[in-house]
Design a protein that fits this description.
mainly alpha
Length: 53
């Protein structure tokens, strides 16, 4: 682990952030996919809440 940190220089010219691909951009902006994710997350929350009561 220590060795990896030595090779990473955060303010170096070669240090760049990840750029999302076209598919990732589509999934982030697709209303149908977002609605499906909303339903799945709500179902997961219902399961967690029902276990605690």
């Amino acid at each position: 682990m220590q060795r990896i940190e030595e090779n990473i220089k955060p303010y170096d010219q070669n240090f760049t952030t990840m750029v999302p691909t076209g598919f990732v951009k589509f999934m982030r902006t697709c209303i149908i996919w977002q609605f499906f994710r909303f339903i799945v997350i709500n179902l997961k929350m219902l399961v967690v809440v029902s276990k605690s009561h």
